[in-house]
Amino acid sequence: MTHIHSFPPIVSSKSRTLILGSMPSKVSIELNQYYGHPRNNFWKFIQECIGVSRDLDYTERVIQLKSHSIALWDAVKICTRTSSLDSDIIDSTVKANAFNELFKKYPKINKICFNGAKSESIFFKHVMPTLAKKEILKFIKLPSTSPANASIPLEKKLNDWKAALSNK
């Protein structure tokens, strides 16, 4: 089992929408990039939803994402996990990221889009009870962009993402 840490948030003073994952995959951690696994559909969906080309260098994609008022982060700061699967996160080891600090520093964030059920469940279990800003946030659960999430057709997933990101 591996004890892992998430990345710092990608966020700017313009950020209004926070896309929240659970914990980066092993490939993402190796690359030090959000959604670095080549089969993860995140950057493909971002390209389709807001026009940020997935062929751009990672640094440029991040800059473009910020220019569209979108932030990225993970629900989990630290946990133990046996693989890259969300189902392998050992719940008793989860320490959530500091959302009250994030929302205080970036008060324009008013919507959280959960990239999959695990990020949503961790957020509501570990963060919501302590959250100061919950009354002004909109929450949207989206189908995971992970290649492990094959139960929902790709077109339906993309349409859900487009609807969520259409009015940032």
- Domain count, please report it: 1
CATH architecture name: 3-Layer(aba) Sandwich
The CATH class label is: Alpha Beta
Q: What Rg, in angstroms, do the CA atoms define?
A: 15 Å
Distance between the termini: 38 Å
The CATH topology name reads Uracil-DNA Glycosylase, subunit E
Strands of the widest sheet, in order across it, are 3-2-6-7
Q: Main sheet, how many strands, which sense, barrel?
A: 4 strands, parallel
Hey, roughly how much beta strand do the residues contain?
15-25%
Q: Into which percent range does the helicity of residues fall? A: 25-40%
Shape: globular
Query: What is the residue-mean pLDDT, rounded to a whole number?
Result: 88
CATH homologous superfamily name? Uracil-DNA glycosylase-like domain
Structural class based on helices, strands and sheet pairing: alpha/beta
The succession of helices and strands, N to C, reads EEHHHEEEHEHEH
Number of strands: 7
Residue ranges: pLDDT <50 for 5 or more in a row? none
The total count of helices amounts to 6
Summarize the structure in words.
- Helix 5 (117-127) links the parallel strand 6 (111-115) and strand 7 (138-142).
- The model has no long low-confidence stretch (mean pLDDT 88).
- The N and C termini lie far apart (38 Å).
- The longest helix is centred in the C-terminal third of the chain and has 12 residues, at 154-165.
- The protein has one domain: Uracil-DNA glycosylase-like domain (Uracil-DNA Glycosylase, subunit E, 3-Layer(aba) Sandwich), CATH 3.40.470.
- With 168 residues, the protein is an alpha/beta fold.
- The protein has helices at residues 26-31, 42-50, 58-67, 99-105, 117-127, 154-165; strands spanning 2-5, 17-21, 70-74, 76-81, 95-96, 111-115, 138-142.
- Helix 2 (42-50) crosses helix 6.
